[in-house]
Amino acid sequence: MPPEPEFVPDTFVNKLILLFVLEKMEIPLTENSILEICTGKNTWLNYMDCKEIFFQLLQTKFIYTPSETKRESRFNITYDGRTCLSHFYQRIPASLRENITNYCKINRNYIKRTQEYVAEYFKNEDGSYTVEFKIYEMLIPNALFEIRIKTATRQSAINSCKKWRDGAPAMYEHVYETLLEEK
Fold first, then answer.
1. Virtual CA dihedral for 136, 141, 144, 145, nearest 10 degrees?
2. What backbone phi and psi angles, to 5 degrees, belong to 158?
């Protein structure tokens, strides 16, 4: 089998790459998630190109945000974006398509969790920190579950944020069963 020709990215192929990522991920993604996937965790695109391509795909309605919410918007591929991709996806090198497909399969659930289980902290006037833990559902605009906790140190706020993604489902289940289920 002859070696695959060297890949020289162009704007059109870069747009196809971003559309391919959205299609293979199979979930709406925040702009930050898209940038992190394409430029941070992988080097499929450079940051500035990715930002510009994202804006162009949004303008041409190849990607869209399903609903307006108070939280960070999530974006998905449109029917026109899928149609364009289906006609030209072969322009993305096969090895890169395989790499993207594998990455999406392996990381889809983790990325979904990072978007659904949100933890943020901020410093209070008294020097303590408040940590906000939230759980979002895909189609619900407001948080499904929200807790605020005050901590003494920044490090404890950071540590609790790190633990939240893994512990959020169990915590929600426990609170729901304890407070809302009738026995």
1. 80
2. -65, -45
Are the CB atoms for 137 and 144 separated by under 8 Å?
yes
Q: Which helix (H) or strand (E) holds 48?
A: helix 47-59
CA atoms within 13 A on the CB side of 117: 19
Ordered structural domains, the chain, with CATH: 11-114 (1.10.10), 116-179 (no CATH)
Q: What are residue 148's DSSP bridge partners? A: 132
CA angle 110, 115, 127 (to 5 degrees): 110
**CB within 8 A of 12, min separation 6: which ones?**
88, 91
Task: Tell me the pTM.
Answer: 0.71
Q: Cα angle at 70 between 23 and 51, to 5 degrees?
A: 45
Q: Tokens 């709406």 — which residue?
A: 28
pLDDT digits (tens, 9 = 90+) for 90-104: 999 999 999 999 999
| Cα dihedral 143, 146, 150, 153 sign | negative
Q: Which of 17-21, 82-86, 89-93, 178-182 has the lowest mean pLDDT?
A: 178-182
User: What are the DSSP E strand ranges found in the chain?
Assistant: 29-30, 63-64, 74-77, 117-123, 129-135, 145-151
Q: Is 49 left (phi over 0), alpha (psi -120 to 50) or beta?
A: alpha
